[in-house]
Structures are given as C-alpha cells and as structure tokens.
Amino acid sequence: MGKYFGTDGFRGEANVVLTAEQAFRVGRYIGWYYGQRHEDGRARIVIGKDTRRSSYTLEYALSSGITSSGSDAYLLHVTTTPSVSYCCRTGEFDCGVMISASHNPFYDNGIKIMRANGQKIEPEIEEKIEAYLDGEVGELPHATREHMGNVVDYAAGRNRYIGYLMSIPTRAFNGMKVGLDCANGASWNIARAVYEALGAKVYVINNQPDGVNINDHCGSTHIEGLQKYVVDNGLDAGFAYDGDADRCLAVDEKGEVVDGDRILFLCGKYLKETRQLDGNTIVTTVMSNLGFHKSCEALGIRTEKTDVGDKYVAENMMANHFVLGGEQSGHIIFGKYATTGDGILTSLMVMMTMLEKKLPLSMLAGEMQQYPQCLKNVVVTDKQAAQEDPEVLAAVDKVTRELAGDGRVLLRASGTEPKIRVMVEAATDEICEDCVDRLIQVIRDRGLAAE
Asked: Fewer CB within 10 Å: C terminus or N terminus of the chain?
C-alpha cells in the first residue's frame, strides 16, 4: 500500500485529496515513462472515465500531462473500467487509465492505471509515480514542437468492446426479461445496447447520469431498488453494476440478492460440468463466505484465498492459469475473456448459465449454502497495533475455538480508512453478532479504539 495508490488506484475526494495538478503530474510521468520504450519517445495511452462531474477535469489534466511529455492520449470518453482493460490488451497501447472512484460517492474520484495486458500496474511503477508526485526525482523534460503528443478521439474503441461483449454468449436471450441497474454510471450507454442486441427484453433503471447522482441510492451498493423492480415487473433476473461497471451483483426472479460468492459458485459449477474450469479451482479473497468454500468442497472444486482486492485475485489466476476468480462484492474475473473484473460480462455469464441449464436463477444460486455473517467497523488510533495486540489476538483465538470449525473470524485493516473490520461467520445471526461485539469490546477495553 503506497502513499497515494491503494489496492484500486489513487482515490480520494476530487480537488481535495486528488487534484487536477496531481492528475497532470501523473500524466506527465506515465507519458514520459512509457515513452522511453519507444525510439521516438511517443507512447500510446488510452483513457476512459465515468460520469462524475470531476472526471472531465481529471481527464483534461491527465491528457495535458501525457501530451506535454510527448506521448499520445486516446480518449474513450465515458466508458467502463473493463473496456479500458480490453482496449489495452487488444489495441497495442502501452498502458491505460480509468478515471473513476468505482462505488464511492460522486464527490470522490480516482485514477486507475493498467498495463498493456489490461491488469493493474506493478507496485514498483506506482512507487515511481509517487516519488515524482512528492518531488523526490528531478523534473521531466517537456516535449516541444513536433514532438508534443496528440489527443485522439477513440470512441471506436468503446464500440469494439461492445461488439466483443455481444460475441461472447453462444445463444440468444430471446424471451428473457432482464432488469439492469446502471448506477447512473459508466454502463448507462453500454449495457442496454448489449442486452438488446442479444434479444432480451430489457428494463433499465438509473441510467440518467447528471454528474452527481452516480451510485446515489442505486447500483450494486444499494440493490434494494432493483430487488423491488424485478419483482414488480415479473423479470427473470436483474443485474446491478457499480459506478465504473467492474462489479456486478444479481437479483433472482424472487427478488433475492445473488452476491459475488453465489455468482462464482453457480458459474464455477457450470464450468466444471462442461470441463472448462481449468485447474478445477476458483480464486477468492479472505472475505468469501465459509459456506462458499464448503459448497465448493462438496462438489470437488478447489478454492484459493488471496488478500482483499481484485488485483490480487487476477495475479493469482494469471500465475496459476486459473479461469475463474473474484470477490463477494461482485468483482468477478472470467479469465477466458478478460483480465479484470467486468460487471456486464459477469451478468452475461450468469444469463448463459441460466439458459444452458434451463433453470431459474433462484435454483442455481440456492444450491450454495451461505453462513450468516456479521461485519462491523471500529475506528482505531493505530491499525497495526490493534491487529497485533496480544489480548485482541487471544480473544480471536478463543472465539475461533468456540466456533469449532463451524464458523470463522476475520480481523482486517481497511486499506483507505483508520478502521479495523471485524467479521464473524457462524451458524446463526445471533452467534455472529455476539462474537463480533465481544471482539470489538476487547479492542475498546485495550484503549485501541478512537471512538
């Protein structure tokens, strides 16, 4: 974890934590850095953005920085994070940049940088960018005259991505009634086009972005609106994306939420049945439900755990040639088709599983046992001290022994806030909450809480 770059890029409140000046300097550095790989010093960098008002400011600042270093900036305009990843790996770009704060409120924004294969950049490059932002390295040369870079309209790249998504399903969606919650974000002008081309009867909500309503009581972080909408309109399924559409949660025909664990399970089971689950393994993070692991074990499917963050899932998948991985939050990676989480692709794969197995989503998702889970956050004065305190660790061990293999405990530091996340899974909601409250009380009794 760097000073500016976390697990999902450089993120914070626009013009407070992440300023136009910083975006310009990020552009200056990556334009120069990747330009060094070319004899003429001219790199090709593709840029996308979500619908936040501040995304336009940051896009112009980044483009100015890139071109002033002698590289070319290709603008996809409003598009999804996975479309930038797709363009990186298919369009001979040196790197890509997505301007988005994902599921955060509109006033936040972020810069995600991807390498040529569509995955997030290496930590060592992030460290170099941070050193430049802090003035720890010398100033970079400015390009002049004919050596200055160009800004290129690259809307065609987004259109190619849409065509790619349309080509993936092997059967039409004719007769299927599908709801899409676009979170007033980047998927608003893409998801409908894909589903209508595949023949579905499409019902779309939250697809009127105005710069400040992205993720506002909608999308994958506020899925209750889609739950009601699916039931009220008698839909076969609903899919909720986040602001940059790299994650997806589903709603079955009964209005029940199908989270990332259940999506991984039902798609993984289908891939195993059709001999497409390479390595017979699904990669998840430590946050995945214990029931997911037990259900996979019952089917003879291996699971591997990584730290929280889809970048870690992607790295594990690539290193071991696995084809399926993701997070409970809905970042799902289908390695045959993408190198990053893709919400629209995920929804297409769920639809394909429903159609191939001729079963409703409720039955497919209901095959996975799910343990009750309780997660609470504690604001602390020192995250490391709270995680390493001997009495806190002793309390965790005690609760773990009490659960006796029929549950689990997880203490995890937030990557962006001064918080410790305390999570317990157990046989009942009452047991979960009691265990979490006991652990939080130990943290407070030790004087580690800032509340």
From this structure: C
Query: Nearest to residue 220, comparing CAs of 195, 194, 244, 193?
Result: 244
Sole residue written with tokens 């995890």: 412
d(CA 424, CA 409): 5
Spatial CA neighbour of 398 closest among 350, 435, 370? 435
**Helix-helix angle 260-273:343-357, to 10 degrees:** 50
Distance from first CA to last CA of the chain, Å, rounded? 25
Nearest to 135 by CA among 297, 247, 25: 25
Q: DSSP letter string over 382-429?
A: -HHHHHH-HHHHHHHHHHHHHHTTS-EEEEEE-SSSSEEEEEEE-SSH
- Is the pLDDT confidence value at 451 over 80? no
Reduced to 3 states (helix: H, G, I; strand: E, B; else coil), residue 332 is: strand
Containing 355, the helix (H) or strand (E) segment is helix 343-357
Q: Residues 227, 240: contact at Cβ < 8 Å?
A: no
**Contact status, residue 272 vs residue 280, Cβ threshold 8 Å:** yes
Alpha-carbon span 119 to 394, nearest angstrom: 39
Q: What is the phi/psi pair of residue 128, to 5°? A: -65, -40
Q: Which of 54, 69, 102, 329 is catalytic?
A: 102
DSSP SS3 for 204: strand
Decide if 102 is catalytic. Answer: yes
Asked if residue 67 lies in contact with residue 38, where contact means CB atoms within 8 angstroms, the answer is: no
Q: Is there a contact between 94 and 205 (Cβ–Cβ < 8 Å)?
A: no
DSSP-derived 3-state class of residue 166: helix
Q: Within a 10 A sphere around the Cβ of 379, how many other Cβ atoms?
A: 12
| Residue given tokens 């940049």 in the structure block | 97
Of 234-238, 268-272, 407-411, the least confident: 407-411
How many Å apart are CA 426 and CA 407, to the nearest integer? 4
Q: Are 130 and 123 in contact (CB under 8 A)?
A: no
Q: Count the alpha carbons within 13 Å of 407 in the hemisphere toward its beta carbon.
A: 26
Q: How many residues does the chain have?
A: 451
The Cβ of residue 445 has, within 10 Å, a number of other Cβ atoms equal to: 12
Partners of 111 in the beta sheet?
10, 99
Instruction: Please give the model's pTM, rounded to 2 decimal places.
Output: 0.92
Strand partners of residue 205: 181
